[in-house]
Amino acid sequence: MLATQNAAAVGHELVARLREARQFSDELFRVVRADSLYERPIPERHRIIFYVGHLEAFDWNLLGENVFGMKSFHPEFDRLFAFGIDPVGEGLPGDQPSDWPSLDAVHYYVTRTRAALDEKLANGILEPNAETLDGFSPATLLNVAVEHRLMHIETLAYMLHQLSLDKKVQQESAQNLDNFAVADRMIEIPAGQTTLGLSRDAETIGWDNEYEADVVDVAAFAIDRYKVTNRRYLEFMAAGGYETRIFWNNEDWEWRNACGISQPVFWKKAGDRWLYRTMFGEVQLPLDWPVYVSHAEASAYARWAGQSLPTEAEWHRAAYDTEDETERTYPWGSASPDERRGNFDFHRWDPAPVNAFPEGRSAFGVEGMLGNGWEWTSTVFAPFPGFRAFPFYPGYSANFFDDRHFVMKGGSARTAACLLRPTFRNWFQPHYQYVYSGFRCVSR
Predict the structure, then answer these.
(1) Residue that finishes a domain, picked among 120, 136, 167
(2) With a threshold of 0.90, does the pTM exceed it?
(3) How many CB atoms lie under 10 A from the CB of residue 191?
(4) Looking at the structure, do residues 200 and 89 belong to the same domain, yes or no?
């Protein structure tokens, strides 16, 4: 009876989380003015209207048949909205707004899909110990649906950030944080072991690339106490960092030249001063905010500084390990994430000063490792030993094990709290500037 009650409680919690995630995604789309939903703010991505349909198509394709055995009411939309675009590819998409269904048709698809799934969820379909044809429980698939939506809410923020300001509806954004002078220094991290990945016996549910747990020996190193700030990045630019060939590898230099890259994409030059484009306006460049740049730009800065980007294992050790060789749930300990410990979980639209959350520091004294911007590592995204692709989503990770993507760790202001677990891995290709991702350097 207790197991049944626990399973029922898990089911109710997941359904509540799905409804909350839907609320977040609905609120995000309302940021876009209704006449601008067919815009394409980032050339490499789909038009915004695609994502309105995609979130529901994903839920339907994952749950509708696999879990509930329902027959599709709109197979064409199930296929049309099934897959997004990775910014690595040959050429840019050339579709026109007229190639997409009307907003009314997409909204009807969203409404009907939700109603069909909700009817099944209300009937207690998440029976304990039930399995789908792929061998995964309905609860696991529902968790995948929730986290998939939450991840898109973040990546959609990257897209909407690039949308013209006159095409957005202004929102409130908390920014009143104390800003003390940033005392830059490096923190010494002793040699030791760190555990990457998630054991298949763990109670925590992860994505396929999080498995299996892998113990790694890490040599001693030193790491920046804070993320690299806009102030420090200005020094790199003033030293000719974008024009100096030696700081860039061959592919990154070719990209820089071909695309005319000469500054972070969030910066704008106005006469002799720099402005920063926030989600809803332009402000004087906040010098103590973390700089958001591509992996190529972060790597060039690190070479200029005579340092390197951390490996995934180094980053993980600095964030979660301790002097006594135990590992914390979060850098600060076991307490759940809250606004005192970092800039995450949708509380803000934009970054905060890198030293704004001292209560979030790790056991070694490294600050701001969760939230306020993902952090690039030097580690190419690849499977851990024992990796097995999810049969219900085989391309989620495997399609990106191509030596063209790099692991990011941490989280941003728009990262949901449930994705702040130590094993979660994000990744992007090195020339994509739009991600809310900064970095810190290491010396070995």
Answers:
(1) 167
(2) yes
(3) 10
(4) no
Which value, in Å, is the radius of gyration of the alpha carbons in the chain? 22
Q: Quick one: pLDDT band at residue 284, thresholds 50, 70, 90?
A: very high
Task: Indicate the SS3 state at residue 75.
Answer: helix
Please report, as a single letter, which amino acid is at residue 296. A
Q: How confident is the model at residue 3 (pLDDT cuts 50, 70, 90)?
A: very low
Number of structural domains in the chain: 2
- The H-or-E segment that residue 145 falls in is helix 138-161
What integer pLDDT is reported at residue 4 of this predicted model?
42
The residues with which 274 forms a beta bridge, in sequence order, are 269
Q: State the Cα–Cα distance between residues 58 and 53, nearest whole angstrom.
A: 9
Q: Are residues 18 and 32 in the same domain?
A: yes
Residues whose CB is less than 8 angstroms from the CB of residue 289 and which lie 6 or more positions away in sequence, other chains included: 229, 230, 276, 350, 351, 352, 353, 354
- The CATH code of the domain that includes 378 is 3.90.1580.10
Q: What separation in angstroms does the CA of 72 have from each of 25, 62, 112, 143, 307?
A: 23, 12, 11, 22, 54
| Average pLDDT, integer, range 356-382 | 97
Give yes or no: residues 315 and 359 share one domain.
yes
Q: Are residues 65 and 155 in the same domain?
A: yes
Supply the DSSP symbol for 64.
Answer: I
Residue 349, C-beta contacts closer than 8 angstroms, at least 6 positions apart = 157, 171, 173, 278, 279, 280, 413, 414
The reported pLDDT for the residue numbered 130 is 58
Enclosing domain of residue 31: 2-167
